[in-house]
Amino acid sequence: MARTSVPQRPTPDEQLSPFTGYTRQHWEALADQLLTSAWRWQSPQGARLDLPGTPSGSGVRSDGLEGFARTFLMAAFRVAGADGADPFGWMQKYAEGLVAGTAQPGAEDPESWPKIEDYDVFGQPMVESASIALGLRMTRPWLWDKLSADQQDRAASWLKQALVSVPAPNNWYLFPYTVAGFLESVGRADEDTARVRRRALRLLENWYSGDGWYTDGDGGSYDYYNGWALHLYPLLDHLLAQRESGTALTSQQSPYGRRMHRHLQDLGHFFGSTGAPVYFGRSMTYRFAAAAAVGLGAITGDTPLTPGTSRRILSGAVNYFIDAGALDQHGLLSLGWHGPHQATLQGYSGPASPYWAAKAFVALLAPADHPLWTAVEEPSPADTADHVVPISAPGFLLQSTAQDGIVRLHNHGNDHLRAINAEAGSKPDPLYSRWAYSTHTGPTSAANQADNTFTVVWRGAKGERTRVHPLGVGAVGGSGWAASWHRPSFPGRAASYPGLRVTSIVVVRGTQEVRIHVVEGAPAGASAQASGWACGAEGGTEDGTHLRSTLVPLAGWTHSAQKVAPAGTAFHQVAEVPVLNAELNADGRTVLVSLAELTRAPAEESSQQEHAQEIRDSIDALRVTESEVSFTWAGQAQHVRVDIETKTVAISGQENL
Known about the structure:
Low-confidence stretches: none
Number of helices: 16
Largest sheet: 6 strands, antiparallel
Strand content: 15-25%
Shape: globular
Radius of gyration: 25 Å
Structural class: alpha+beta
Helix content: 25-40%
């Protein structure tokens, strides 16, 4: 089929979309642009899109399938949402590729797709089978129904391998669930399809932690897989089943809809005024897929967000990454965050991996006359006011400030360890184990000075947080808190020191964070180190502002310094991190208190030293003993008291833990 040039995206519509300028036409044009760029790397018959770049651990054949599957999902949202209108002929191209890829699965030729096997043997094709099944289900009248019976049988036979292979012990169980949903929708139900669907829903119940949050498998692993997998697959299955049956969809018909509604109550706060989501967790190269649940919830009605706010979040996320340089010189989504960034990636990341960003295009299933597209854009939560949002299930505290549009996530519950993992000997994961993350900063690499950490140093070894034991989160009148404890884990044979324990509490208001660490049972000669936010060392931005990270010692800390992280972060080529140090009381209790801040400020404002004094003055009546820490926010009526003995936090006299 001859290549057709893709038209330029429409002129921004500032009346309908005053925040982003994006309309539904912009989304369609972007989908066509991304698809056209990817198809320039097709195999001769189109079964694989072999995008340029370093292969993943699964190899080039699997990566080529990944390119086909993930872009097919985008094309399916594009065409199904337009009720079959397909000006660039995507369905014909994907039909030809499907037929070629499933003719002889496992054969060593340029087209044949690899077989689907257990996750620990050759499992990546199982992931891709779900995108293919979803694409086929959404576009059935324009693709599947036009295949011959033999072609359908071969494609179904390949998909059925996902039903009998073992998934990874996490959201992967929703991949065969999704495949089975398609097979049942085309009259190919059997015992295997029923079994894998029951199995997946049973596991979802086991992983549900309440308040709209799932763990990604057994253990304390919370990330954007909540929105782009654990919520998306069952609710999208429900939506498609309703459409197939001709039943009118009403809000919150299923428990999955009700859970999505509750999840979006929190997720809406994860996006800053730039449109960026908070950077934390794995697979962040999927970028604007983080907003996929916002679009699906708007379509099904399972959302507390207005249509205008939903579109502002969705379009803001897409626009952020496009403007930040996510597309490379070929027009392809690069492996990274803004542009290429190695530390953002995992071992399973291949050249086509970023195209799970396609999930955000689920929004196109809302027709052109849907309020998601016709309502005037409204502010996102980060645009409107300062917010403090406690999220109990994962032990998160969100802190956002309208003056700079930054959202900060304080992590007192997430550790990415499976329930069966031992605590000692585990390595902290920078994408999960740091104390805080934001929409404007990323964690430094494991080889550099760590940001937002607390470390006990003993005999030259660093005892770090691996398993997190949450103590609770809460908020009162513009202030919020989160608390947890952990046993520092040291490398080597002496992985722990008996009786050594760190209790940590953060209390926030506005842009500021009072960080309290209580160390008990430290060995003789041990010391402590804490770090703040990692900001770029390369200066200000085009708007004349710069990010400023401040970490001020208030009690117990004896030394402060500024350290360089030369590998930078996903946001900055080179980063600087403020660091505090202190000696610890041997076998006793040490109470350490600091004041941290991450904000965006005009470049001509006060120096770092002057600003440190300014924010120090924001704390009045600070009192620190071995049994309590108390203070008052300057200019505020709120008094904060942390009882170290009982691990309770009281704000303005109200007990909150």
